[in-house]
Amino acid sequence: MKKNKVTILLILAGFLLFIPNMVKAGPSQIKLKVITELANIRSNPDIGSTVICQLPLNTILESTKKEGEWYAVTFTPEKGETISGYVHESLVLVLEEEPVRIVRETIKPVESPPEKKDAQVEKPSPVEKKAAETARREKHVLSHAIVPSTIKKSKTTRFDILLSGGLSYMGAGILNKGAQGLADYYQKITTGQGPGEISSLHWAGAFGAEFNFSVFPKTNLGIGIDFLSGKKESLFEIPDSTPDISIQNSPNVQVVPISLTVTVFPFSHFYAKTGIEILFAECGYSYLIQEGEAWQKWEGTAKGQNMGFLGAVGLEWKLHSFLSLFVEIKGRTSRIRSLKGKDTYTDSGGLTAVEEGTLYLYQTKTADGKFYDLLFIRNKRPAEAGVYNAEEAVLDLSGISLRTGFKIKF
């Protein structure tokens, strides 16, 4: 009986000792550290597979197995679901190797491999440098990687707003022709003398705002709106006239251009811009003629719109991570015709007359055969006696502007 008990105990002890040699150890985890600026985590162990996310330098990963040159890894962000995929061996450094497994055929003890020191050094080793170069080549293969919002990534500018102010020089020829022609005509018929001195309207204040989207590297698509406003008042007194005669002129113009532009940055601080715009314009005249105590006045305002083209170059200086200062020179070309509006006539005798129609530029002639330009709003093309070369007025808004302002980046 005792011999049977001893035999059973020996069998059980041998069985317990034999079990570890029959069963291999379960899967163990390998700790990895990212040694490149960004490591691509792919859906399959293949360089052509989809990039699931990118992990930054020094990220610690866990791997349960290795398939060829690829580690199967998992990563859990601070907030978000666990991410699983594959990372190439050139992008990571093994911190903890798999332990040696004991198999049935092995009867001799095997010494454990020497532990690798944790690579926590400031300067990368030659192996790490080579791995970083391999990662950069891999990143070039698939440039558009999908990065989950839970992974911290570098901040890029998506859009920006430009606010500017300055001066704009424009032709506005018809307004100046009308003011100068009226003064010259009255001086000629009253004193017979030469042309008068009337100040011309050319300069206008320019204010604008522009909203830019980044569509390609160094290329922005923009939508802008500007406001240009100019007015020039002048008083001309006709010498040697009896009674005293004075002529006051006040041409004015307001323009609202709405533009669609493309901006390219060939250099970091220099840009070039081109685009199209639609311009909404309003121009006006005011003529006040005073002869002693008597006076008469014409006031007219006309509106129109048309397409135009613009081009600009500028310099930009960074003041802060989100703020820059810029200086820009912009040129535009646009001509607006078919200007519609209303003219109001009043005089010292109490007469008032209103005429609605189109802005016309025409000429009148004095007895010596000289022609003088006149600008008025008429309900039909002028054709009465003493009127010559009548045509619809064309407002030329072509010119150049100089402005400065701030760019706010988002």
What can be said about this structure in brief?
The chain is mainly beta. The chain has helices at 2-22, 126-141, 173-191, and strands at 30-34, 38-42, 51-56, 60-67, 70-75, 83-88, 92-96, 159-170, 203-216, 219-231, 234-238, 245-249, 252-267, 270-291, 294-318, 323-333, 335-336, 340-347, 352-365, 371-378, 387-392, 395-396, 399-409. The chain is rod-shaped, with a radius of gyration of 42 Å.
Topology:
Layout lengths: L1 H21 L7 E5 L3 E5 L8 E6 L3 E8 L2 E6 L7 E6 L3 E5 L29 H16 L17 E12 L2 H19 L11 E14 L2 E13 L2 E5 L6 E5 L2 E16 L2 E22 L2 E25 L4 E11 L1 E2 L3 E8 L4 E14 L5 E8 L8 E6 L2 E2 L2 E11 L1
Antiparallel strand pairs: 1-4, 1-7, 2-3, 4-5, 5-6, 8-9, 8-23, 9-10, 10-13, 11-12, 12-14, 13-14, 14-15, 15-16, 15-18, 16-23, 17-22, 18-19, 19-20, 19-21
